[in-house]
TrEMBL record:
Subcellular location: Cell membrane
Name under which the protein is recorded: Protein-export membrane protein SecG
Topological type in the membrane: Multi-pass membrane protein
Superkingdom, taxonomy of origin: Bacteria
Family: Belongs to the SecG family.
Keyword Repeat attached: no
Chain segments carrying region Disordered: 87-120
Function: Involved in protein export. Participates in an early event of protein translocation.
Pfam families reported in the protein's UniProt record: SecG
Classification via NCBIfam families: secG
UniProt source species: Flavivirga amylovorans
Lineage, uppermost ranks: Bacteria, Pseudomonadati, Bacteroidota, Flavobacteriia, Flavobacteriales
Regions crossing the membrane: 7-25, 58-76
Predominant location: membrane
Length: 120
């Protein structure tokens, strides 16, 4: 298993967790934190602590996702130090040769009025 594959799997997992954490939040104070408003959750820390946890986990997961994406760019197997672009290759001529002109034909269909011998 290559390093890039490991990074790719971690990116997918972190992205999924980030989606779940964002979907649980409600910008008006609802969501998961308000559904835990009664019963034994007041003893666990209350609504404010749940909102703080969701906010911190969102920022942490977003930062982790960005770092994993940037680190996966380093881990991509590039297959050597070859230049794949012909635009960057300086050994080749910069101008392409012009195509050869087509041979002229003397058909009646292509005759011009100056070539017309009837005089009309």
């Amino acid at each position: 298993m290559s390093t890039f594959t490991i990074f790719l799997a971690l990116i997918v997992v972190v992205a999924f967790l980030l989606i779940v954490v964002i979907m649980v939040q409600n910008p008006k104070g609802g969501g998961l934190s308000s559904s835990f408003g009664g019963g034994g959750t007041q003893q666990l820390g209350g609504v404010k602590k749940t909102t703080d946890f969701l906010d911190k986990s969102t920022w942490t997961l977003a930062t982790l996702l960005l770092v994993l994406i940037l680190a996966s760019n380093i881990a991509i197997n590039r297959g050597g130090d070859t230049i794949d672009s012909k635009a960057l290759d300086q050994d080749e001529a910069t101008t392409a040769p012009l195509p050869a002109p087509l041979p002229a034909t003397n058909d009646d269909a292509t005759a011009t009025p100056a070539d017309d011998s009837t005089g009309k």
